[in-house]
Amino acid sequence: MLIAEGLTKRYGTRRTLDGFGLEVAPGEIVGLIGHNGAGKTTFVEIVTGLVRPDAGRLRIGGHDALRAGRAARRLLGVAPQELALYQRVTVGENLRLFAGLAGLRGRRRDTEIDRVLDELRLTALADRLVGTLSGGQRRRAQVATAMVASPPLLLLDEVTAGADPESRSALLTAVRTRAEAGAAILYTTHYLPELVDLDATLALARAGRVIARGTQSELTRQLPGELRVAFADPAEPELRLPTTNPGADLATLLASGRTPVSVEVHHPSLDDLYRSLEAAAPRKDGASHDGTA
Predict the structure, then answer these.
(1) What are the φ/ψ torsions at residue 199 (nearest 5 degrees)?
(2) 34-80 pLDDT, tens per residue?
(3) Under 8 Å between Cβ of 268 and 220
(4) What is the Cα–Cα distance from 226 to 240, expressed in whole angstroms?
(5) What's the start-to-end Cα distance of the chain, in Å?
(6) How far is CA 145 from CA 53, 84, 107, 120, in A?
(7) Which regions of the chain carry the CATH code 3.40.50.300?
(8) What is the topology classification, in CATH, of domain 2-219?
(9) Are the beta carbons of 286 and 11 closer than 8 angstroms?
């Protein structure tokens, strides 16, 4: 549904994208992660048509998004990181506007609005002015505007930032539901546990390109875990041992004659993957033009 190949973008002497490539298939949630300066924001701006790349290709639903942008972006629903709602009108009025811009009319429009209000637990808030909502409620309303026309590609940028637990739960449930219905979803976040909850595949960006791509299990398989063994000896109450084979390492430790009081195996996590790839990838000059790419 989304195919980016070799995207590059410069701002003066600073290169924000340097051969950026990424694919998102129907029914897939891709978690795009990376520190500030990795290229995430610039890539999002290119997909949404706000910025043109200097080189590379971008296809959305079979359309060349750099030449036939209007046709391509009819397939795209966007919830940006910065809130983009009309504050002095109601949630329902915002949704009617966005549904109309997507080409929905009459009964179909009303049906889609009712569905997305229910999906994001907003039905009771439909007649509330957006400016009176909590931060989490506004986040849900913004995602509702992206989902209201059921686009086959969703771009969700830090949509749970500042959200309360209820809103976070509603948002993640809605994202999973849309993926199960066949939508391709590009999901950017700094909160890595969300990607585990969403069972997302991962794309880790660094210095303007994707440096790792796959499932969490595929990407963490070769990382060492940690064997944490506690002893009654106050001189050395705990031993932490990097390991790729915790069973064998524990057996060796027990053979030494020391008796543990507890044993814990820490398996590699997304945070461990993130740190290992960040440490291994070569740094390059050229930060984002806005400092947040």
Answers:
(1) 55, 45
(2) 887 889 989 999 999 999 999 999 999 999 999 988 899 899 999 99
(3) yes
(4) 6
(5) 23
(6) 27, 10, 17, 11
(7) 2-219
(8) Rossmann fold (3.40.50)
(9) no
